[in-house]
Amino acid sequence: MRKRWLVLVALVLLILGACSGKDKNSSSEAIEDSGEEKVTLNGFGVKAPAATTDWADMEFLDELAENVNTEIKWTNATPQTQQEQINLMFASDDLPDFFYSAWTLGANDIVKYGSNGQLIALEDLIEENAPNIKTFFEKRPEIEKMITAPDGHIYALPLYVEDLWSTSNDAMFVNKKWLDEVGMDIPETTDEFKEMLTAFKDKDLNDNGKKDEIPFSFTYSNEIRGPHSLSGSFGVVGRKLGVENGEVYLAPVRPEYKEYVKWMHELYKEGLIDPEAFTHDINVYDSKIKSATPVLGAYFAWSKFSSFGTLDKDYVAIPPLKGPDGEQMWNRSSGSLSLSGFSITSANENPARSMKWVDQMFDPEIAVQVYAGPFGVNLEKDGEKIVKSEVPEGTSYEEFRHQQSPGSYGVYAILQETFEKFELDTGEKEKMEYAEMYEPYQPEEIYPDLLYSAEDAERLSILTTDIDGYIDETIPKFIIEGDVDSKWDNYIEQLEKMGLDELIDIHQKYYDSFKE
Q1: Is residue 1's pLDDT more than 50?
Q2: Domain region containing 136
Q3: Model confidence pLDDT, tens digit, residues 204-221
Q4: SS3 of 30, please?
Q5: Which of 78, 88, 92, 463 is most buried, with most CB under 10 Å away?
Q6: Residues 269 and 481 sit within 8 Å (Cβ to Cβ)
């Protein structure tokens, strides 16, 4: 009798536990473990600018959902509308089950909404449901550290691609045809570069009877099209933050940077720099590069193929210039890494299923398809090689790859051993050559992408806005107007008043923690 009573009590407790809605994670995991019930998830994602297909219409994404017995109802935004939609969702607490897309939530958003509970911690879900992500973290523990918030939790999974060229965004080009016409070799030093520009200045090298030659142009405010790597010829790199021997610094306050600015002023004073280099927008600048009648002697860009759609042009990319003291350095970027990618919200009743779904995209075979499109449509296999399918006439490559997959706005990890399997196209081969050319001159240490506490992030936002704004206003003035020696100390003093030391101290604290 006593045994029957105990069994009856156990059955009642089991039924009560199953019916309870207080522990959503436990009930949802029980459903998933049984494999008997299909669940529906609401996902929010941002389409790439080139995408013409909604994610709800992508067969490839449907198949990934079916793999884990799930249906996903997608809400898609564009980069132009995403911020307003995201802000409204968090403000109203009317959240999707998950956010899925790179470049969506800012680093401060991740920490803010994670600390207030609207985004849930992912590390336990990863441990229990994501073998591919665990393998990725084992291979690249530094990425796991980057995406871990100061409170020790992971609130977002990243996009990460080890493509060498994205660590070398900028390349400097010179007009080889013009060089041949003036009887000069490719410049190797800052002095030779200035001599080349001077030779270009007053000659009708494009044979149009006009004095429209521009010796040197760039778009100063742009990371790729700006002249910022030239500071490496004077001994300092880092467009803003840099690291040397473990010490964080701000490049535009270094004495070496001052010498770079003085040299740039010499070029500007002698009419060798485009007067519009500090004011024209990207479209105007690119139109100068693409001019049917060549007008530029030297410029910065990503690649020739990206500018012209062909390599059959008279420009060549050149290595870093040697400066007066023999310095020869080039900026290094952090690569294809987005700290924001996949986050699960407090509205999600099936977090484990959601994690199993996204874990597929960290499998190398699936990751390449999220990145470039599915096999049989956008990709083909040639032995161990992965070959991109021919793009249909009238469609750009970016449009083609985003027809069947999230592409550049997806969430996945592609490591070097996988990326090397891709058969590179013409433009990629060109860019790879530049990346390999600049790599020996890039610093080993750079300041990584990191997450900050809400308090430090808010303080950094204030400091960075003031300090970067002042630098971005003052350095172009120095280059245009000169008087660098007489005004430099006042410039540094003003930055110190704005909190320069505090800015460096905060970044140093997080860098030290990252390196531990």
Answers
A1: no
A2: 36-161+336-420
A3: 999 999 989 999 999 999
A4: helix
A5: 463
A6: no
